[in-house]
Design brief:
By secondary structure, this protein is of the alpha+beta class. It has helices spanning 10-19, 46-72, 99-107, 140-149, and strands at residues 2-6, 29-36, 77-80, 111-114, 117-120, 129-136, 150-151, 155-156, 165-166, 173-174, 181-185. The chain has a 5-stranded mixed beta sheet, sandwiched between helices. The model is unreliable at 153-189 (pLDDT under 50).
Length: 189
């Protein structure tokens, strides 16, 4: 899994009230989660559709836990359903979020359109990647703290035990259980 945290792009800054109309604080950070998959998501088969549903459920489960923690700390946060483009916990606005466009804006990864489906083209995983997005009023440093403390598949861990180490891939951090890559970026600010 690859995760990166960014300041909101100008598009998100300009349209946050249409994405999250009930928020009374601005979006301060955007977390992009990319999950690799063994199947090429450009292929529309029952197997790929089932895998996309599994990855969606994984993101929704982990994302809800992150959002709950951010809410406990007094921040607004919501994850966007990759299937619909609408926020999961907040009232939906008049605009849906295009997670592929967010990945392109934040990470600069190219995309491809195939039969009305837009796909991320990851530099290592190609189109075998499932993108997801979480937004928060918390500063990127808060999101970094959550990522550093979270054992993504089992609960919170002691940050002293975190085995994050510097990677050469996009100035990422590698480690923390199954969570393999992480970075904080000001791209798009």
């Amino acid at each position: 899994m690859q995760c990166s945290v960014h300041h909101p792009s100008p598009f998100i800054q300009n349209h946050s009230t249409r994405l999250l109309p009930t928020w009374d604080k601005p979006v301060a950070s955007v977390m992009v989660v990319l999950q690799p998959t063994a199947c090429n998501l450009a292929d529309r088969t029952p197997a790929t559709e089932a895998r996309k549903q599994q990855l969606r459920q994984q993101f929704l489960q982990v994302g809800r836990a992150i959002v709950r923690h951010l809410h406990e700390q007094g921040h607004l946060a919501d994850l966007f359903d990759p299937k619909t483009g609408y926020p999961v916990l907040s009232q939906a606005g008049s605009l849906t979020l295009d997670d592929v466009a967010v990945v392109k804006a934040c990470l600069g990864y190219p995309s491809s359109t195939l039969k009305e489906c837009c796909l991320v083209l990851h530099p290592h995983w190609g189109s075998a990647v499932y993108p997801s997005v979480l937004m928060s009023s918390a500063a990127p440093e808060w999101i970094e703290r959550v990522i550093r403390e979270w054992d993504w598949w089992g609960g919170w861990i002691d940050s002293q035990r975190s085995d994050l180490s510097r990677s050469e891939y996009h100035h990422s951090f590698i480690g923390c259980g199954k969570f393999t890559q992480y970075r904080v970026s000001s791209i798009g600010s």
